[in-house]
Structure formats: structure tokens, C-alpha cells
Design a protein that fits this description.
Low-confidence stretches: 1-8
Distance between the termini: 24 Å
Order of helices and strands: HHHEEEHEHH
Mean pLDDT: 85
Strand order of the largest sheet: 1-2
Strand content: 5-15%
Largest sheet: 2 strands, antiparallel
Helix content: 55-70%
Length: 225
């Protein structure tokens, strides 16, 4: 399998890595601060647990698409390794097609769930979108349980809450990661499909045991040279 990554490198690649690392770092800082507040000052940061859960969800969902791009997902390729290049490519395309269909279904579900919190119409159609619903019940006033509203998001009060102020963070903000991450997942699987068609890769993911063995073999060959 080619070692090339899907998608653009450079700025976008570093941006994704920075966001993921930032989410992990922020989770660590908030959790540590809450532990100190509880055991040192006998207090508690009320919104710490809920915010950490949201950050973890962002980390996992954004990390899923990043792992597709970097071929970091776990894979079992014992059968593929026994096949010649032609059938191997066909099976790889079938696998990525299944992943694309599944991620498109996830994207529809994610949009439909998030859209009502943004006062936007969900899609029509049970499985695949056939348009947007003419009638829907907006839920822009829904707030999270503990995380307080922050000042720079006050514009949402006029946009989706009819001018009413928020006491807590509206759900539209943390749940935004659902459609964004599923869209990224669709894009990443599409990029893998293109990569396989062009012959730059011969499978969706490779087992990490095989990759480790290949790296060890290359290192040993380099020492012998």
C-alpha cells in the first residue's frame, strides 16, 4: 500500500492536528482544574464535566475523519494480501463504497438532528435526502445543562432564538460537530476512493502489524546496505 495520505497536506493537515491536539489539551486542563478545585479548595467547577464530554465528542468525531486520511484505523487485510492486484483493487473499491454509503447515511442523520437546533429544516426522505422538509419544529431555544453562555456567541440569540437571551450555551453550538464531522468523513472516504482508482493505494486500511513489520524490514535492509 502506498504511504501517501489522502487529502491536501501542509496547512490543512497541520490545522487538523492542531485542533485535535488542542481539544485533548483543553480536556486535560479542565479536568485537572476541576480536580484541584475539588480536593484543594473543596469546591467544584459545575460546567467542567459537561464541557469535557462535549470536547471528547469533538475529539472522537473529528479524529475519525483524520484517521481515515492518515490510514490510522484498524484493519484486517489477511485476505487482501493473498489476492493479486486486480481483485485486491476491486475489493478495496467495494469496501470504500460501503463506507461512503454508511457515512452518507450518518451525514443525513447528523444534519437532521442538528438542523432543528439551528432553526434550519431537516431533510426529507427516510434514508437518503429528497429535499428539505417544508414544516418542522425548530428547537433553537434548547440549552445545555451546565455550560454557561459566552459573550462572543450572543449573536445566536437574534439568529435562532428570536432575540431571547441564553443563560446556558445553546445546543446548536456543541452539536455542530455532528454534521461537520460526518461531512469530513464523506470527503475522506471519497478521497480514498480516488486514491485507489489512481493506483496510489490498494486497500482502505492496512493492519498495523504488517506496517510495523515492513518498517522493521526496511530499517534492517538500510543497516545492511
Amino acid at each position: 500500500m502506498s504511504g501517501a495520505r489522502t487529502g491536501p497536506t501542509g496547512f490543512i493537515n497541520h490545522l487538523e492536528e492542531t485542533i485535535i491536539a488542542g481539544l485533548l489539551g483543553l480536556m486535560t486542563v479542565i479536568t485537572f482544574a476541576n480536580v484541584v478545585a475539588r480536593f484543594v479548595f473543596n469546591s467544584n467547577i459545575l460546567w467542567a464535566l459537561e464541557l469535557t464530554v462535549f470536547l471528547f465528542a469533538w475529539l472522537v468525531l473529528l479524529g475519525a475523519s483524520y484517521a481515515v486520511k492518515t490510514h490510522a484505523h484498524l484493519g484486517v487485510d489477511a485476505i487482501l494480501n493473498m489476492l493479486p492486484p486486480g481483485p485486491r483493487k476491486v475489493l478495496a473499491l467495494i469496501a470504500v463504497a460501503c463506507c461512503l454509503v454508511f457515512s452518507l447515511l450518518l451525514l443525513k442523520g447528523a444534519w437532521d438532528y442538528w438542523a432543528v437546533f439551528a432553526e434550519l429544516p431537516p431533510t426529507s426522505g427516510r434514508w437518503f435526502p429528497t429535499g428539505f422538509a417544508d414544516k418542522f419544529r425548530g428547537q433553537g431555544w434548547y440549552e445545555v445543562q451546565d455550560v454557561p453562555m459566552v459573550g462572543f456567541l450572543r449573536f445566536l440569540e437574534d439568529w435562532i432564538n428570536f432575540g431571547e437571551s441564553y443563560e446556558k450555551l445553546p445546543k446548536v453550538v456543541p452539536y455542530l460537530v455532528l454534521p461537520v464531522s460526518m461531512l469530513l468523513l464523506v470527503i475522506r472516504f471519497a478521497q480514498v476512493a480516488v486514491q485507489i482508482v489512481r493506483g496510489e493505494a490498494d486497500r482502505l486500511v492496512a493492519s498495523h502489524e504488517v506496517e510495523d513489520e515492513l518498517e522493521a524490514a526496511r530499517a534492517k535492509a538500510g543497516e545492511n546496505d
